[in-house]
Design brief:
Blueprint: E1 2-5, E2 20-22, E3 29-35, H1 36-39, E4 47-52, E5 60-72, E6 82-89, E7 102-106, E8 115-118, E9 123-124, E10 130-136, E11 139-144, E12 146-151, E13 154-159, E14 181-183, E15 188-190
Antiparallel strand pairs: 1-2, 3-6, 4-5, 4-7, 5-6, 8-13, 9-10, 10-11, 12-13, 14-15
Length: 191
Amino acid sequence: KVIRCKVLNNQYPTVESSTIQIYDLSRYIITAYVKQNEAVLMAEGQKASIILKGLEQKSYVGTVIEIEESAELPQNGSGVPMVQIKVAVDEPDQDMRVGFEAEMKIDLNAKEDVTVVNFQSIVEDYNGERFVYMFKDNKAERKPVKTGMESGYLVEIVEGLIPGDQYIVNPPERVQDQYTFRLWSWGYELQ
């Protein structure tokens, strides 16, 4: 779509009047600069939450489509090298305009397809080893785990469990491997 055309009919173009701006409005791309310590954590395909100035009631989702290979020192003299990134808006609408100011949030710690457990299920022994109690043959079985990121009530399990494993949330202190459990829909009972 031709956005701006300063060329006049039947006149010779000048430097000021020879500009034609054409935009592909099928795709909106936001260019931003991020600090080098954030850029190393970014990858193409990461999702971004986008809010446009003046349209704060809406939020858009975007995808990181490009990360520059080099960093540059900004013009403002802050001294922190910045890396240019490009984020494409996934579903633009009629309210968007080229040149609008946008604010983006990109969760650099987001992971997909991870195994997580409730934080109350993690038990730590005197040596600092972490484990969970799993249900196996109606008994509690201590299973060592390695944890990763923690977010709210969830803890990432990097090693030790697989999706679908049944574990005890908030086990009582007296639980040991030999205890037998009766599993109810509302919880469990020590026997």
